[in-house]
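Entry 14. Structure prediction run on the chain below.
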Amino acid sequence: MNKHTLQLIQHITHHIMLSVCTLLSCSLIAACHGTEHNDEAERADSIIAACTDLMFSAPAKADSTLAALQGTLTDSASWYKAEVFRGTSHQLLGDTLRAAHHYARVQHWCHTHTGSHYIEGLLWNHRGVNAIIGGKQHEGRICYERAFTLLNQPPKGRELIAVTINLADIYMQSGKMPRAAHYYRYALFLCDSLHDTRSRASICSGLGQVYMELENYTEAHKFFAQAAQHIDRESLQTQFFYHFSLGNCYYYEEQYNQALKSFAKARQLAEKFNDKVLLINCDANMGEVYLMQDKLPQARFHLNRCQGAAMQRMQPKEIFYIKSLLADLSLAEGNISKAATQLQAINDSALATGSPRYLMLHYRRLQRYAARYGMWQRAYHYLQQANRYADTLNSQQTRNNVTEMGERYQRDTTLLHQQVALADYSAKTARQQNFILLIIGALIMLALVATLIIITYRRRTQERIKRQMQHITELRMDIVRNRVSPHYIFNVLGTVLPKLQRYPELVKPVELLIDVLRGNLLTSGKVAVPLCDEIALVRHYVELHHYSKGPLPHVTWQVTSQLEHSQWLVPSMSLQIPVENALKHAFPTLTDECAIHIAIELHDNMLHLCVTDNGQGYNPGKVKRTGRDTGTGLRLIARTLEILNQRNRHAATFSIVNVPPPHHGTRMRLCIPTNYDFDTSTTRK
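Output returned:
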């Protein structure tokens, strides 16, 4: 039963590997062109995937379709993928020379182009499948191992899963169960790593089969249970493999009723894809189970179904085993002569090809046959032969179990080391996280301290600005008080008022005086005033000065109408103070040549206020005090601009210079940017 199962699995594996090859090709196509997802590659991928299924039903049509595709391709990688499948199509047609020609062309291209290991891996996987179909297991294993080496390098793709399953299958067929378990487990690891659930049922069924052969039924049923979770979504071939393998497991455990249910399900699936060989194998297994239960009519029914033309398609080992079962059934039915004829029909060449398990069961049947006829010496000989093959099986099983246990121990040890390494890594990560949190906490504390320092500094700055503004206001009020002192007012009124009674037209000086007093009082508490207001105030002041002091010095203006009425802000008294200084200090003696020129201009995004006189020139520190000034006017302008410039990106400037020779006099210039901000509030954002 065991070796019969192995041979059946070999046949089933052919189907599975071919279907896996389809998966291999589709996934490999995507992997090989990860950087060139163009329309041509996608079109080639879809046609190759369609031809993969077509190869097994109409290989000639698949070849012609692939040849037509190659005529439209400009991408060499896609072209040689199609070439691989053309080689397989010719192999399925029986034209091995053409197949070898296509494969050799792909092999040459792979050797002359770096980075083509995916296509070369695909090529060797196809060659392995073809070798297995031809019964060349050793050659197929070599091809699969080369494909595995090529594909088992980063980046690993889903195509590696298919090759790994193929390797596991072929090692299981050759009786090397530990190696089969190793590759099956690696395939399972790849499925988990690549999040691929499409192959899990096939892999778990294979692992269940491996541990069944090792008689580790607990482990076998664990994997069969995992396969059952995905089996309904798998192909018919994979479902057949699962139910057939599970039936064998129940048979080994002598749970014959469960085994019959699984074999019956497998036979129903074999009928769907009409595979005569698989149907014979199912009937043979079901006949053997009924024979073990002494249900001879049911056994005869199924074993009779094994005979027919399809037997010619089976391997000699399988034919030998079925003939041996028929002879055993004849013995059980008491038909000794028929059993003798059937046993004698099994020649020595068939015995030479049998596996140890087949031969063990065969010699046990011969021993029962000889004992029934009283041929005790021959029966004893057959018993010894059966025991010899049983010992061989036990020794092989013991070696496999020891090897598998060693590999499992090594795997568990490796896993333990990995877990320890992960634990160490987790501990290091935790320490790093704590260190990072500590650094972050320190940075937050530093940020809070810096914020507190900045807030404190800004408060102190605002308080300082507030005190400075109060000081400026006091200076401005001093200037106003000086300008509107009683002495000054009485002098003007003493000159003007007596004349008003006789000359009504002299009411104008009084009005000018009132305007000047009102203007000074209104602007004394302001940082900035509109330019038009400042010009009007200065005009009134100059006119009042001429009423009280005479028409000298001459005052001229250079200002456009637009600026005359402009609302641009300027520092309050910024024009009045320079004009007043020129009137008071520029001319020790007044002559007709004495003149003051006031120019207001706008250019280069700057407003220029310039007061120029042709007097004695600027000589700071040597100006003779009159007793009526405080000397705070120019300091007021300079201090005001100093504070305002701290809150502006572009600074305003104020300068006092002597007019260069050959001329003489003083020029006072104030330059204010057009976007200058006069906001001095402490709540400014």
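Residues 1-37, 625-630 have pLDDT under 50 and may be disordered.
Filed with the rest of this week's runs.
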